[in-house]
Fold these 2 entries.
Entry 1:
Amino acid sequence: MKIYRKLLRNQKYRSYYALVRAIFKIKIFRCKVRTYEGFMPHVADNTIFSNKRRIVKNNKKYPHPRAKYLLGIDMDQSCSKSDLLIENYIKYKKSQRNLNEIDVLSIGPRTEGEIFNLYSHGFTLNKIKAIDLISYSKLIDIGDMHDLPYEDNKFDLVILGWCIAYSDNKKMAIKEAIRVTRHGGTIAIGVSYSPKNNNEIIKNRGYLIGSKERLRSLKDILNLFTPTAIDQLEFGIDIAENHRHLPGQIVGLFRVKK
């Protein structure tokens, strides 16, 4: 089991493993790519369309600029950016509690890559829940992050890995994340930073990626929480002023207070 987890820690192996599972599920077992069909007043336009291309090749007019496909399925299933959230959570929390006791919710993973990344770091599969608007996998529930189908105070760690940008009501999404997080638990958020404005993004991609309201700093993420909801910022990565002309990543791990 330790060897299996060590192999999954390798991004390439994890990507190939998740890709093979996706091929079997979609192509051989004919599992459909399920899509959330409920009312989505707070989800940004193009969210499902844009992210579905990172699962299957489904649009010729607006192909994803980085996606490469095998049998019509996106080959990059590693979810490598989630390392920024998972590894820094472990760094600051591992001494306090065994990882196999942690209840985790992954919001917006799309594929199984993030689930297996969590598992590779020591979390237990049957204590990992995941939810997205789209997925082919039974390991991922179909639902909206603004209306999570989970009970209050259920999770020790809630990961919003590069999905909050697709919300038109980010404070509501954070409120839901807080609701399902236990007192003393952690909400881990990742956001991609781009120096381009909305018009430049539309010109480049043909449509706007995510919400018109963009998060451009760690302070912007912090402002989504009510002052009484956070005990402390456990870890943060921000964009330095002299790097704001370059793309980058913003990360925040927030300890919830109830």
Entry 2:
Amino acid sequence: MKKMMKGFTLIELMIVVAIIGILAAIAIPNFVKFQARSKQSEAKANLKAMFTAQKAYSAEKDKFSNKVGEIGFSPERNNRYTYFVAPVAGGLTARTTATEVPTAGGVDTAVEYDAFKYGTAAPSAFVQGNLDADPTKLCTDTGPSAVKTPGVDAVAGAFWMGAAQGQIDNDVALDVWTISTANRSLTTCDTTGPNPGGEPANDYNDVNQSK
């Protein structure tokens, strides 16, 4: 006597596919956010390295510097973020080719994201000058260092602020971080409250933004 083999019905298969679709719809956005958060570790690590380089320069020269070459800051390649020791108007170390190209005369105040690896097509492109042109993405400090521009304090040179800006997901918004030698009390941004000197702050958290 032949034994009958039973299989799944079309309805059962459709139910399984629907369940998989629902689980994917829930899991994928959370995975994308988790992936973006992991990329932010680059900004935190490199800003701390920039802070250390700035403090070492200050200890030797008794002043802070607005130039990446003077403080000896050069992040590893494959960087998703552009790093500012001061506003980019001073010069930008380009990373559009296999070998980075500093501006002649050692005047660079920023190091470009690795455009050689990540390309220049939107939304990956770093918009040069955007950090200065859109200060709403930078925190306000209610203390003595109440500035929204990276660089050395123009009045007394008593403190310095560095910044990082990069693309970590698939929208047009850019992730922005800052670090300062001063103790700050931050407002009007995504990170608020006390911020000790040398601790990176996520001024504009791109993980939580849609544009």
